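User: My collaborator sent over this chain with a note saying "see what the structure looks like." That's all I know about it. Can you take a look?
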Amino acid sequence: MEYAGSNRGRQAENAAACIGAAGPAGFQAAWRHIVDVFRANGATNVAWVFCPGSSSYAPNATAQGVDAALYYPGNDYVDWIGEDAYSRSTLITLPNLVAGMYQVYGNSGKPLIVCETGAEGVNQPAFLSSATKLPTEDPNLKAIVYFDSHGPLGTYVFTSQGLAEFAALAQNPAFSALAPTA
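Assistant: Without extra context I'll predict from the sequence alone. Here is the result:
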């Protein structure tokens, strides 16, 4: 994977180090080994979240060698399936960002989570508003974590308009942890 910019270059190097020379099979074997060690030692308070970046679900992910499905360790070794997905300088709606993950794993029987997400500046209100479509479009998506901070590839700190939209989203019964379930 090649990325422009020093931060993206470091991310690619870190990803390559994590994947290792053994590629997808080595990654799967390492993941399964770690889960087996935890289970053998009675660690029942651990949830295993498979969480690649959104580019791992892109149509060209296989050609780039980052296809999430190649690295997936299997349903017996994963509790949640997620992705990190950001809307950077150009607005990309949250439903569009999670569409690839949902297409690949929406029927896996596993709950889905957006482990990290955020939108830059003026894009925040529209980005957060787009999330209201998710409960009906992606019913297996059970959690979203907003990254309200400066990051290495962008600034996702809430603007006043973004914070207002986030507050409105939090009042939506579909997003409330206290909402009754059907």
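A starting point for your reply to your collaborator: The CA atoms of residues 98 and 145 lie 13 Å apart.
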